Amino acid sequence: MNLLRRIASLPGLRAALLHPAVRRRIAGLLGLRFLTAALAVDRPLTLVLNELVRARGQVRTYTVRSTGVPVALQHGRDVEILHELFRGGEYEPPPELVDRLRPDRVRRVLDLGANIGMFSAWATGRWPEATIRAYEPIEENASVYRTWAAAAGADVELVQAAAGVAPGTATFLVGRGAGDVQVAPGTFEGSTVEAEVVDVLPEILEADFLKIDIEGGEWPIFADRRLSDATDLVIAMEYHRVGAPSLPARKAAEQLLHEAGFATGYGAANYWGHGTLWAWKPTDRVAAEAARVAGAAG
User: Fold this and answer.
1) How far apart are CA 85 and CA 278, in angstroms?
2) Which of 56, 89, 139, 270 could form a disulfide with 76 if both were Cys (CB 3.0 to 4.6 A apart)?
């Protein structure tokens, strides 16, 4: 991996290696993560065989061993996401927030950048009584989400639109799996689609838990003044270099969230310039720890 990072720094190669599809392929080849991801589901051998030879490009449904909740994925594209959530623990809350995120305390979950529904499946297992509202603008992903929702029978609602801060439309560069990104019309070659944009700030203010992974679309949301009106909200996010008001992107995200009254901490950056981060509105129970983490981040 260190050799790969040095190679990625060479002129002309870094841009190619930054492409989401290339990154996912490299991760799969180096880590063989589909083998460990298979251990999370009820039919691990079937998943491995489907991933390698039998069902590449096809959507299949499995059941997560630890929760009994179904997951749906497209073989050859989505097993990495299964690994991230159910083996890598990407959204497992930090210790200071575990009590705040007990099943009886989270009733409204908002999933921005729902992709194929893997986070919604994880959230269903953790908060079985919660309602989940999800946003995903790309039909290729939304169709898999609908397959999952039908199998899960969970209290979910999928909105096939992009999350934003004002109604409108947006252009997305597609055919990149989980890396579908919003672009300015005419600035990129490749297949694009137009998608509706919905102002999600009113829903954010009503949510108990917000997951946001929208490939750079997070920045207008973080900068919106209405975000400061949230009172008891926990956010788990993936931030990105694209669209960041300044670099490094994590520092920019922390600054905007601190201005909105959130404490931030935890998560991790990666070599590609994006990473994960948690944010939460302090309460009496966590105010002291929130102040400590925010001070350390500053």
Assistant:
1) 16
2) 56
